[in-house]
Specification:
heterodimer; A: about 325 residues; alpha+beta; BirA Bifunctional Protein, domain 2; 2 domains; about 35% helix; about 20% strand; B: about 800 residues; Phenylalanyl-tRNA Synthetase, Chain B, domain 1; OB fold (Dihydrolipoamide Acetyltransferase, E2P); Phenylalanyl-tRNA Synthetase, Chain B, domain 3; 6 domains; 7-stranded mixed beta sheet; 6-stranded antiparallel beta sheet; 22 helices
């Protein structure tokens, strides 16, 4: 191979060849020109190759496996973190929104009417005991379920029945229960409630809707199964389970309890000013904390409100 | 509740595997918490006859020779005259009795399925070889009795029999979740449960017949305060010809009770419990003679009424309780003798001396009994059933059946007399619901035929008149939960399996769903704070302690107090977020973290904010943020937030604050209204958290931000002519406010035509102890229409300099 100097010299000489074109007969000029051009291109390519080789020779090898360079400081990444529960709540709401549900958030101080009366709990019925509710000295209630928002969801979007033929709302929120705290029980936790009303809502639609949510959430087809349950505000009432998803190590055998659901009790619709002879609805609700625990393999629910950076830095 | 599979199999023809049955019960009736297979527990436990029992001197033990049948005798202990030698510590072991013997190699049933299963072996005891063990009820996991070994009935058992065969222990015990049967009192008896199982399997259920006492009815015995507290009270008076002691033998009935988690008490009580477990109707027996003595009457005067203030009663367990006005009492004349539905009283307790009994069967208000349960902490099998609302229909007939049975075992020829009082019209009326087949199918999303629907409902006792599409359904009297069409649809869907419903989706209109603006805004804030400003999001409890509120000088009286809080740490609904964050700031600092920022967005409330239109407390969604740093770092965060969110926030001085140092803090205003404050936290406050200054916080009430007019975020105009840059430094008195200098520059630049510029502060420098400071800016400036020449630039700078001179600033 020619040295760089030789190539450059040749290029210079080639420049002179161009002058010869004028001396040639008309018919030969074209082919002569093409020959010189192609020669020139070849020389230029060779020069470039030589130059690049020379450049590489100056570069010193580095340790590609090291996290940072020699004599350099470790890089600092931004230290900010988002709470996994808040993130998951937003993610869950986002999926529902894409399915067509409006989102309203639950309030954290409520009253007997929203928590129980509007949901067809008879006054002083033992079913109210099942919710281990806290009460303030004024009789207000830090709600024990996001269903406390059902009446508000139904009344606020009641005009959608005329406008769009349906009400479709989900309600994420923080809820409270007077329970002993351990690795799987917290007195403060998060739920997401769903409410749908139309003239032709069915229990089959209820199951299909929640199934579709979980299939989107876990990114796979899932089997579901149910158990009869009892909630005064739905009739029929069911407990809803999904097959343990592959992402959580499921092999098609285990089941996960995801919450309660059912057809909205006609009294609940009536209380909210919706005629149960014309409209039917379904509602469902489940915990968010456990979704997050399963997703990240968190084994203690108390971490969530611990405020510990050791935990939060993981997110 | 514990349900015996054998009992179910006696009542319903079950042709599927046990596991399939459990799955069906789980999906169509009630959640099964666990199933315990008893068979392995009782594998090598036999009936034996005690041939001899000689005391071992100086001990409480007996050396026994037992007969377990020829084969076992020879196999286990070939050395002792054809019998097996066992050392037994029970005081009641005696020659001739039949006992339960745990053979060597077997596990003691009470330790089965525990972490330390105890295997019985052949071993020497006090110098005597002992093979196996004679067992008490508790060791057999058949109750808690440890008084002595159980004795078996020679009528039904013989040496060598397997105990499991004699006591019906080759069984599986299903534990179900009571909570999901809150509305189903009928399922709290085995018969009612079995009826459901039959229905699930598509079979017609026939309720077993019961004996019935044939006795005279006496009037004027019972009075009831109101139908609300007690719709129905019935009783039987039975003379006992022979004294009733405890059944000497542990028999199938005892095992039946044990399998349901109860235990034998006395012959009478065992009968009442037996019927309660079968039918769900609790019964109670009083000693007749004690009853009339307490009331001072010749004949019983049974009075059902609410408790009065200051009344007390001593219950069967010997405890005296103070009654509350919602407690229902059974009184003899006017003296309380039982806390209705919960527990009998000490004064009328039956015992060996009892010669006459009053057998009670009644229904009480579940609401009152619920309060009784809560007030006195009584959680008996009876009250568990009563609080589901026992149906009136069972009341009298279960009483008559139990009375008849007691009369027979007591040797009485017949029941003396019965009494009853109904506070509801008779005959009892069935709930009748008219609906159509399509009502059912439209609710479920199913396509069931009228025939299938009718058959399904009839299997569990519903009576139906149908004319094709139209159905008239009469609910059985024990179904207190059936009132509306939806209840009937649920029955059909449940019996045929909700899991078999076809899944379809609702039609959806092409309308963009609404989203809670606060929910969206919070997520936007979280992204800015965490991803851009490096802050750490926390979630802390909404409930805080008075102590925490005191630390930050909050008015404790302004907090909503939780009356049933878990602990004093969680007593008040919080008024603000920052105090919780200060707590966590310290905790994380202790764990070795430095220079971090914590924030939380959550709801807070104060009583003084009043109530909403809905008469619920006003809550505010608040951003709280704390950081290690001074006023300026907090201000930087605030500015970044304002810029990113395009909010026009103003900062004004604050006079006082419960938490912030007023000289190093500012109030945050939006459109003229105060929405929060930020700045350095008072060192007195920090001291209480064991934190050292400077630590700052930001608090913003987010609601007003949602509706505020956003500032226009027009991108800087681009000029095709070059920008010129200049650094400017002005010396001013220390007291001069930075903002005046910045405005002084901007006001000049604003007056020049066609100018576009970027002005950024680059330093504020003050010599230690100096009374002047240097403020430096970097200015980038261009003209939109032409290239600025040096002359024009100098001219602009001069104008700025002259303007600032009026403020006492000198160009450096």
């Amino acid at each position: 191979m020619s040295s760089l100097e030789e190539l450059k010299l040749e290029l210079k000489n080639l420049g002179r060849e161009y002058a010869k074109i004028k001396t040639l007969p008309e018919a030969e000029r074209k082919s002569f020109g093409e020959k010189i051009n192609s020669r020139k291109a070849a020389i230029l390519a060779a020069i470039r190759e030589q130059e690049e080789l020379a450049e590489s020779a100056d570069i010193k090898p580095i340790d590609l496996t090291a996290p940072f360079g020699e004599n350099a400081k470790p890089f600092k990444t931004a230290s900010g973190t988002k709470h996994p529960l808040a993130t998951e709540l937003a993610h869950v709401a986002d999926i529902y929104r894409q399915m067509g549900f409006s989102v309203i958030e639950a309030r954290q101080l409520d009253d007997e009417f929203h928590m129980f009366d509007s949901l067809n709990f008879p006054k002083e019925h033992p079913a109210r005991d099942g919710y281990d509710t806290f009460r303030t000295s004024e009789g207000f209630i830090p709600p024990a379920h996001t269903s406390t928002m059902q009446y508000r969801a139904l009344t606020r979007f009641r005009d959608h029945l005329d406008k769009y033929g349906q009400i479709a709302v989900v309600v994420p929120g923080r809820v409270f229960r007077n329970e002993d705290v351990d690795a799987t029980h917290e007195h403060t936790f998060y739920q997401c409630e769903g409410v749908f009303v139309s003239k032709d809502a069915t229990l089959g639609q209820m199951l299909a809707t929640w199934k579709n949510f979980f299939e989107t959430y876990y990114g796979q087809k899932l089997n579901i199964k149910t158990q009869p349950g009892f909630f005064p505000f739905t009739e029929p009432s069911l407990e809803f389970q999904i097959e343990k998803p592959k992402a959580l190590g499921g092999k098609g055998d285990g089941w996960l309890e995801m919450g309660g659901c059912g057809m909205i009790h006609p009294n609940v619709l009536k209380t909210a000013g919706i005629d149960p002879n014309i409209y039917k609805g379904f509602a469902w609700g489940g915990g968010i904390d456990r979704l997050v625990m399963l997703k990240y393999g968190i084994n203690d629910v108390r971490y969530f409100e611990s405020g510990k950076l050791e935990f939060l830095k993981e997110f | 509740m514990l349900i015996s599979l054998n009992e179910l199999k006696r009542l319903v023809k079950i042709q599927i595997s046990d596991d399939e049955l459990f799955k069906l019960i789980g999906s169509r009736l009630v959640e099964i918490e666990s199933v315990e297979d008893l068979a392995p527990k009782y594998k090598k436990i036999y009936v034996v006859k005690v041939k001899s029992a000689e005391p071992i001197e100086g001990t409480h033990l007996h050396l026994c020779q037992i007969d377990a049948g020829k084969e076992l005798n020879a196999e286990v202990d070939p050395e002792h005259d054809g019998y097996i030698q066992v050392v037994c510590g029970a005081p009641n072991v005696k020659k001739g009795m039949l006992a339960a013997w745990i053979a060597p190699g077997a596990i003691v049933p009470s330790t089965f399925n525990t972490d330390n299963p105890f295997e019985i072996t052949a071993r020497p005891l006090r110098g005597f070889e002992s093979y196996g063990m004679l067992a008490a009820a508790d060791e057999l996991a058949l109750g808690e009795d440890h008084e002595g070994i159980i004795s078996l009935d020679p009528e039904t058992a013989k040496p060598g029999d397997l105990l499991a065969d004699i006591l019906d222990l080759n069984d599986k015990i299903i534990e179900v979740e009571n909570k999901s049967l809150t509305h189903r009192p009928d399922c709290f008896g085995i018969w009612g449960f079995a009826r459901e199982v039959a229905g699930i399997l598509g079979q017609m259920f026939r309720t077993p017949g019961m004996p019935s006492a044939d006795a005279n009815v006496k009037d004027g015995i019972i009075s009831i305060e109101s139908a609300e507290i007690c719709p129905c009270y019935t009783c039987a008076i039975i003379d006992l010809d022979n004294p009733l002691e405890k059944n000497p033998y542990f028999d199938k009935n005892a095992a039946f009770l044990a399998k349901a988690g109860m235990h034998p008490i006395s012959k009478i009580v065992d009968v009442t419990n037996h019927y309660m477990l079968l039918t769900g109707q609790p019964l109670h027996a009083f000693d007749y003679d004690k009853f009339i003595a307490v009331g001072g009457t010749k004949e019983p005067k049974i009075n059902v009424r609410l408790a009065r203030n200051d009344e007390k009663i001593v219950l069967l367990d010997g405890k005296e309780i103070s009654l509350t006005p919602s407690d229902i009492l059974i009184c003899s004349n006017d003296t309380p003798v039982a806390l209705a539905g919960a527990m009998g009283g000490e004064s009328t307790k039956i015992d060996e001396s009892t010669r006459r009994v009053i057998l009670e069967s009644a229904t009480f208000s579940l609401y009152n009994l619920r309060k009784t349960q809560m007030a006195h902490g009584i959680f008996s099998e009876a009250i568990t059933r009563f609080t589901k609302g026992q149906p009136i229909v069972n009341c009298e007939r279960v009483m008559l059946a139990a009375a008849q049975e007691i009369a027979i075992i007591a040797g009485a020829s017949k029941v003396n007399f019965v009494a009853r009082k109904y506070m509801v019209p008779l005959p009892l009326k069935k709930e009748v619901i008219a609906l159509s087949v399509s009502d059912i199918n439209n609710l479920l999303g199913s396509d069931y035929s009228p025939e299938l629907i009718v058959r399904t409902l009839e299997n569990t006792g519903f009576e139906i008149k149908s004319t094709g599409e139209k159905l008239t359904v009469a609910a059985p009297l024990w179904r207190t939960d059936i009132h509306i069409k939806e209840d009937i649809a649920e029955e059909v869907g449940r019996m045929l399996g909700f899991d078999n419903l076809p899944l379809t989706f609702p039609q959806r209109p092409f309308v963009c769903p609404e989203i809670d603006p606060m929910f969206e805004f919070k997520n936007q804030l979280r992204t800015i704070l965490s991803e851009r400003l490096g802050a750490n999001e926390l979630l802390t409890y909404s409930f805080v302690s008075k102590g925490l509120q005191e630390k930050v000088n909050e008015d404790i009286e302004d907090s909503y107090k939780i009356v049933n809080s878990i602990s004093p740490e969680l007593e008040c609904f919080r008024q603000s977020i920052v105090p919780s964050l200060l707590d966590k700031l310290r905790a994380n600092e202790k764990s070795g973290y430095k220079d971090f920022t914590l924030y939380e967005i959550n709801q807070v409330s104060k009583k003084s904010w009043g109530l909403t239109d809905e008469n619920v407390p006003v809550v505010q969604t608040e951003l709280g943020l704390t950081l290690f740093g001074d006023y300026f770092l907090a201000k930087h965060i605030l500015n970044e937030l304002a810029n990113t969110l395009a909010l026009k926030l103003d900062v004004k001085p604050i006079d006082n604050s419960n938490i912030l140092e007023p000289l190093h803090a500012g109030a945050i205003y939006l459109e003229g209204a105060r929405i929060g404050e930020f700045g350095e936290i008072k060192s007195s406050v920090l001291k209480r958290f064991k934190l050292t200054p400077p630590i700052s916080s930001v608090r913003i009430n987010l609601e007003p931000c949602l509706f505020a007019k956003k500032s226009q975020k027009a991108a800087i105009k681009l000029s095709k002519f070059p920008f010129v840059s200049r650094d400017l430094t002005f010396r001013v008195k220390t007291e001069t406010n930075y903002i005046d200098i910045e405005s002084g520059i901007k006001s000049v630049l604003g007056q020049i035509q066609n100018i576009i510029y970027v002005l950024e502060p680059i330093s504020i420098f003050r010599k230690p102890d100096g009374d002047e400071k240097n403020i430096s800016f970097h200015l980038e400036i261009a003209n939109e229409t032409k290239t600025l020449d040096s002359h024009e630039i100098s001219d602009i700078i001069d104008k700025i300099t002259n303007n600032l001179k009026t403020l006492g600033a000198e160009v450096v």
